[in-house]
Amino acid sequence: MDSELVIRAQNGDRDAFAALAEASLDRLLSLAQHILGDTQLAEDATQHALVNMWRHLPRLRDAARFEGWSYRLLVNACYSEVRRSRRWMPNMIAPLSFEPVAADDLGPVHDRDELERAFRDLSVDHRAVLVLHHCLGLTLPEIAQSLDIPEGTVRSRLYHAMKKVRAALGVAMPTINARPDAERARS
User: Fold this and answer.
1) Contacts of 51 (CB under 8 A, 6+ apart)
2) 3-state secondary structure string across 32-89
3) In three state form, how does the secondary structure of 102-119 look?
4) Which of 103, 111, 110, 150 is nearest to 129 (CA)?
């Protein structure tokens, strides 16, 4: 993001904020859809995040951190939407296709369904970290800064999210030797 545009928006320039919102909208909406799994909830969360950006932008201390700050506001808005909707049910249904499907083509569909089911079973905390890391490509320190949580918490949530997804898909977690020096010393 252009820091000067952020500074202008912080000073009340509505056109500058409109440009920031327009530049961020698709990215934020996509992120919310991945986290919530429901288009309507994602649109509501994105709208709430944009309103909160406008309200709280003057409090942002470092204009260069606008992007990470916007992620934090969006994830918080996603949490609010989940709390607000009593009967929250992800709406990840793809448009139906009436074309005949060969038996060989059903493998990827089954895999996608299993992945969506596994992802749906994750908590919003785990989904948020997983999406920020794997979909947006943020590093663990960037996620920690964006969500305002310790890096160790990010690492833990990512580990447990991946463990649950892999278990649901029947994929074994890679074993990590926590004490390689001790093992080598015994050999």
Assistant:
1) none
2) HHHHHCEHHHHHHHHHHHHHHHHHHHHHCCCHHHHHHHHHHHHHHHHHHHHHHCCCCC
3) CHHHHHHHHHHHHHHHHH
4) 150
Residue with tokens 């969506």: 116
pTM as predicted: 0.70
d(C-alpha 13, C-alpha 84), whole Å: 32
- Encoded amino acid at 8, one letter: R
Where do the domains of the chain lie, and which CATH numbers do they carry? Answer: 1-88 (1.10.1740.10), 105-174 (1.10.10.10)
Query: pLDDT tens, 109-157?
Result: 556 677 777 777 888 889 899 889 988 889 999 999 888 899 999 999 9
Joined together, the tokens standing for residue 141 give 């320190």
Contact 35, 127 (CB under 8 A): yes
Q: What counts of helices (H) and strands (E) characterise the chain?
A: 9, 0
Helix (H, G, I), strand (E, B) or coil at 91: strand
